[in-house]
Amino acid sequence: MIYVDSATASRLTGKAERTIQKNVQDGMLPVERVDGGTGQGGISYRIPLTALPAEAQIRYWEEYGQRV
Fold it and tell me: Which burial class, exposed, middle or buried, applies to 6 when counting CB atoms under 10 A from its CB (0-12, 13-18, 19+)?
């Protein structure tokens, strides 16, 4: 499975990063918690690419191709 951070999800969807973070907090976007990450309190969250809208997923594949 491919995961992206909130900054990448923001860029792919065209939404503000704070909006993505709010969606995560509200449970609107599923995430995987990563302890020892670079986020606040040493906790980061990864968002599954498949949880983003189809347009954002297409944008991801156009940009990154098979490089994962």
Answer: buried
First to last CA, the chain: 10
Q: Rounded CA gap, 40 and 26, in Å?
A: 17
Block means of pLDDT (10 residues each) for the chain, length 68 residues?
Answer: 92 95 92 72 84 96 77
- Pair of tokens at residue 59: 């944008």
* CA distances in angstroms from 17 to 5, 7, 11, 14, listed in the order given: 10, 6, 8, 9
- The model carries a pTM of 0.81
Which of these, 45, 33, 43, lies nearest to 8 by C-alpha position? 45
